[in-house]
Amino acid sequence: MAGRTRNAITLYGCLRDVERIELRLHGTVLYNSIYRADRDVLVNTHAYSTSAADAPVIHLRSNSDAGTAAVHLTSFERIWNQSRPLVDA
């Protein structure tokens, strides 16, 4: 897992200086990867024996405080609030 984390930091590192983009680290065990842009949410599901690149990605848009997108946004916010900013690695 450490190698995958280093790889992700390398791949996304070019975004670190882009305005309004923030990368953070956390130690939470995840059952999917959640990418957020305002109220749009991309959920990369984790499937046993399937690489993330081959797993389904679900695009959700939240227009309320209820529903599937809201559940994933709440999950994202909980993890985000426990995370720490990525410093030079």
Salient structural properties:
globular, single chain, 3-stranded antiparallel sheet, alpha+beta
Would you kindly provide a written description of the structure presented here, covering whatever features stand out?
The chain is an alpha+beta fold. It has one domain. 29% of the residues lie in helices and 24% in strands. It contains 2 helices and 5 strands. Strands 2-3-4 form a 3-stranded antiparallel beta sheet, with helices on one face. A two-stranded antiparallel sheet has the order 1-5. β2 and β3 form a beta hairpin. The relative contact order is 0.20.
Secondary-structure topology with pairs:
Blueprint: H1 2-12, E1 24-25, E2 32-37, E3 40-45, E4 57-61, H2 68-82, E5 84-85
Antiparallel strand pairs: 1-5, 2-3, 3-4
In whole angstroms, the N-to-C terminal distance is 16 Å
Q: Reading side by side through the largest sheet, how are the strands ordered?
A: 2-3-4
| Low-confidence sequence ranges | none
The domain tally reads: 1
Strand content: 15-25%
What is the residue-averaged pLDDT? 87
Helix/strand order: HEEEEHE
Radius of gyration: 14 Å
Q: Specify the number of helices.
A: 2
Shape type: globular
Number of strands: 5
Helix content: 25-40%
Largest sheet: 3 strands, antiparallel
Coarse structural class: alpha+beta
